[in-house]
Please model this.
Amino acid sequence: MTAVRNVLFVMCDQLRRDFVSCYGGSPVETPNIDRLAARGVRFDNAFVQAGVCGPARMSFYTGRYVNSHGATWNRVPLSASEWTLGDYLRVAGRTAALAGKSHVLPDRQALTRFGIELESERAAMLREGGFFVVDRFDGHTPPGPESGYADWLRTRGYDSADPWSDFVISALDGHRVVSGWNMRNAHLPSRVEEAHSETAYMTDLALDWIRAQASTPWVLHLSYVKPHWPYLAPAPFHKLYRRKAIGPILRGPQDGTADEHPVVRAYREHDECVSFAREDVVRHVRPAYMGLIAQVDYHLGRVLDALESMGRLRDTLIVFTSDHGEFSGDRGLGEKELLYDEIVRVPLIVMDPDARADATRGKADARFVEGIDVVPTIIEALEIPGSPHRVEGRSLLPLLRGEVPTQWREAVFSELDYSFRRARRVLGHGVRDCRAVMVRTGEWKYIHWEGFRPQLFDLAADPHEQIDLGADPRFETIRMGMREWLFDWLATSKRRTTVDDALVEARTDAHRAHGVHIGIW
Amino acid sequence: MTAVRNVLFVMCDQLRRDFVSCYGGSPVETPNIDRLAARGVRFDNAFVQAGVCGPARMSFYTGRYVNSHGATWNRVPLSASEWTLGDYLRVAGRTAALAGKSHVLPDRQALTRFGIELESERAAMLREGGFFVVDRFDGHTPPGPESGYADWLRTRGYDSADPWSDFVISALDGHRVVSGWNMRNAHLPSRVEEAHSETAYMTDLALDWIRAQASTPWVLHLSYVKPHWPYLAPAPFHKLYRRKAIGPILRGPQDGTADEHPVVRAYREHDECVSFAREDVVRHVRPAYMGLIAQVDYHLGRVLDALESMGRLRDTLIVFTSDHGEFSGDRGLGEKELLYDEIVRVPLIVMDPDARADATRGKADARFVEGIDVVPTIIEALEIPGSPHRVEGRSLLPLLRGEVPTQWREAVFSELDYSFRRARRVLGHGVRDCRAVMVRTGEWKYIHWEGFRPQLFDLAADPHEQIDLGADPRFETIRMGMREWLFDWLATSKRRTTVDDALVEARTDAHRAHGVHIGIW
Model:
């Protein structure tokens, strides 16, 4: 039996589950993701805790729901009090390294209050969400000083103060340089060679770093910024799916109608929804998105090959997932955020090298799993003590190793805080009144919206969430039951995080031992 | 018009609302509390956020519900990320001083993680919950190094390594020294002179400190450890109410019966409930409790006299309250914790020196107010900017100044985590499964208990909460409505605390200005 010595936690950004071929029905071929699935377990019902990068990732990194860690939106700092994967590993003398995107923003206000210099050595861990930074690049803005990408590009001949803007997300239309921000240019190849693209760069870095570890055990978060927008792929991936089948474009009978949910309707005013509501835009952009997926798959193949040649597939736990999905014009919507399955149901594949997992290799597991399960899975695999007083996820190791855990969860939860979005102004809401919480069982999805009627979908009869039953009087009993799920979830979220369970147990009914005598005659 | 320059926030420990004479029906005379009420507003429906010191105080000091600050029990450290009164004042260059009890425990784990030495200057603020410590004494254990009380006692002739144990909570029974821990000794006077008692000591210190501030504006939390147990009063207060009327002893038809709530029944096995279930014990102990109240009242009188002579009643906002109540044998129960009105409904009097408050002087206000309202009241009175993204309480200034605030709250909330108590073991519950949340409107009190049926009381028909309707099928609709209150409360608690509302407003729909273009054609 080979114990887990290393962990490779691969995250894509905005990769839809049904655009991964092992999940079935994908218009994109992803032979390398499929190869990983053949060696591990493909979770068919994996859900993220938010439909947007920041909060979803903070849940991945803390093992806690958004309602618990509080970083409800992109660039909302993760509270300095939240423990992340890196903290749990550090207690055991291990380190969580990062190559790529984390989207962590430092809690500057807390650092100031604690008298800690932001640039100090001590602050590094708090600044980077517990990660040791090999290279950090969050994507979709020019890489900052935490990344060597800009310099690396310049040494390869991309002569610019901002080679990312001028080459990576730019294209040539004839002799004219055009921007990848404009989706009309999605058919053109990026001005970087494929080998110099974001995905290639980060893969190279990760492999170099892994090789440099030699026989030292390691934990690496390889976090790709793709297939997230800007939708511009390098050649040859830019044309791989041009004029090919792009999969169905889902349209619902309620799209944009008066009986559609008010928040969804407000979202339709966002630029990305205005654009993606046009079928010609979808047909133009999806091939680029698909090409970017194929490119990520190609580089995952390089990673798997390298690990195999190093003998590391034998002792490395590999987690592959995405922070959320993407609408790509389904429902006439663009991008993400709203809590439909295209967004919150993600690919999640875990390859456990331990012999105890041999029986589940290549299988699919339909049980409900969540992004918050990654931290407890990693710490259990490395035999590091868990922190059940804080972590709200559950280790997936029992599922991987064919055990039958008692009382596995029967519902998953995801959240949205759209305070930062134009929809809030469209609806005239205050900055603290824009919360939604989803509970999804195998049969029903219920979304509580602050200040609005709920959404309800009958997933058995309507798996594509076409008919919103949130206001249908026939489903009042169902809605009440789903609301009870949410009540219990809210009422049991983990708040008492400054003492662990062992301490509570030791202190139970222990006042007499400390010389405090209450109410004795 | 005189602006508020100073704040005196007086807290008693375990003072019952109906043992304060201005609230009516009290068996104790409290002329000085009444005198304060005559100059300010007496809140008739003031509720604390927990029925035990630690969590209730952390709510007073943070302005947040227990479910938000997470310090659910005594000696559970307040998270280093929580802002307290002291933090809010510090931003404006002010300081919150403490004379007495705070019950704050430092979040040592966080300080270690942040690389901060517990004893460092920088840690002082975090160690003490934001307070500048004039003298800190939490009561009911020998005073530690944060208090000068033990030394002070020794200089006054109490010759002992532990003068608190040997004198303050000891008595002479004939020539034999007996302990105040044993309630059988409650009729005896403490071995300290009244002028050397805890209440006298802290009052002296507070007045000296106030005098020393001269013309510098100040904020002082004068926090008495009394009338909390041990039930031993110094002469002459020990015998003030001996053989006098002690008020009714409330007994209910369901006390200890099979249809009583399981958690309440489990509490009956605690020492203090076994003792207080005996009427002879109640009759023996209550006079000492009442004497301790009369003593606190006497010293409040000294404070008011001193402030008056210094001219400080003209520019000092005074808040007088208690962290929770006490059963004192009502319902056959002892001490506190459970969410009956004897425990969670407390005295709260606020005297605002501002001329705009003249019209409300001497009046009672029946609106629902909570312990979490004290922080926003103080910061508004001092004209310090509030932090509505964190603080969950509301300033009481509009009520004091005769304004009619829109949408004042119609319910109050309080919580219990009995994980640390013997009742948990009696019930066989785990350390994370012992939570209760109360919502109380003018008409109903509903308590959600994790793993048990709820409690429900019809306060109009049954103001003393004698008949628990939590399992009565006739009240299912009421219970559902009350559960909705709780749902909304849980779903709107303030989680996004690392960014303020102004930042959210400024960043709303602002990605284009930062060069990020989403979904444009």
User: Anything to note?
Assistant: Chain A touches chain B through 85 residues (CB under 8 Å). The first helix of chain A runs from residue 31 to 39. Chain A has a mean pLDDT of 96. The two ends of chain A are 61 Å apart (CA to CA).
